[in-house]
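Supplementary notes for students who missed Thursday's class. We covered one full example, reproduced here. Read the sequence, then the structure, then the short commentary at the end.
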Amino acid sequence: MRVRRSSVVFGGLGVLLIAAAVVLRFVIVPIATRLPAGTNLLVHYAGTATLLNPRALASGDPSKALESGVPIIIDRRTRVLSTLGNVAIVSDAITLHAGATSLPNTHLYAVNRSSLEATTAPSGQKVEPASGLTVSFPIGPKPDNSYRYYDATTELTVAVAFKGPSSSGGRGTYSYAITANGPVKDKNLLATLPQSLPKKTLASLAPLLPVSLRQSLAPELATLPDPVPLTYTAKTHITAQADKTTGIAITETLNETVTVQVSVAGKAVSLVPVLAIDATVTPGSVRYLAGKASSAARLLFLLKSAAPLSLLVLGLVSLVVAILRRRPASPANLGSQSAPNVASAAERPDQSQEAG
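Structure (token representation):
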């Protein structure tokens, strides 16, 4: 059976458009929606802190050894340094500013660009041996308790608790809560804290301790070595509101307390907090992150829905046109249409003769 050439063209075009829709949705979209190589986000937190004053501590002045209620600003820059396939090397640089004092702390992670979970780094690349989420939630975060989070202070991977739907910065979000509690293992943080104290200096801190602890510790002080070794524990609590579409944490609150400990009769005894942070993402950063989420959501809609659907519809329309135009006009119809012209041509000589 003969088929019109236009039908073949429309049929081929329809197949190509449908194939393009499938490739775009299931091949290109997963690649295009990975963590971008050019990611560079700067977010600010504001709040208060309790900070250790090393100079006052060294001088033995307990009244100034700890400064509480200090206004702070935290700058957090998350930047992709390099990518290799589906693995990105991400720098998470956090700097705490308190007056003229700045305390920087940077961590490097290898993360899966799709799931945002820590993964194995490329050969020769040194990163922190993390597991779970490190810097952000993935695109389209799940509203459940399935995520795990890596706490850099304690180097623990802990559960992420889903708290329900919420909103922030005009965007629909999911609320999550994270709590980590354990010995401080962050080498960058430990480098800012004293690893031991002269027994005399430790004794001068007694007025800062609760009365019951001061009374129980006093008899043991003489048995401690000089200088007295110190260890630290940290408790971190984070609440985050992650965009439902993009996973960007638009609002985040950070509460972290680091407490100094001494070993008495083989048992760790907690003394006083030497670092306590209570900070929340600033309103300006909330607007900035909400804008980023809105732009990314529009792009995701175009790539995942609008463009594939448009290609699919155009492909189906082309196939329908191809089916409707598949048959040429029948020979019988062609004969009936041309017969009058033949007859009239045959009649012309007779007409000319009659005229003669």
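Commentary. Residues 1-32+293-349 form one domain. Confidence is low (pLDDT under 50) at residues 342-346, 351-356. If anything here is unclear, bring it to office hours.
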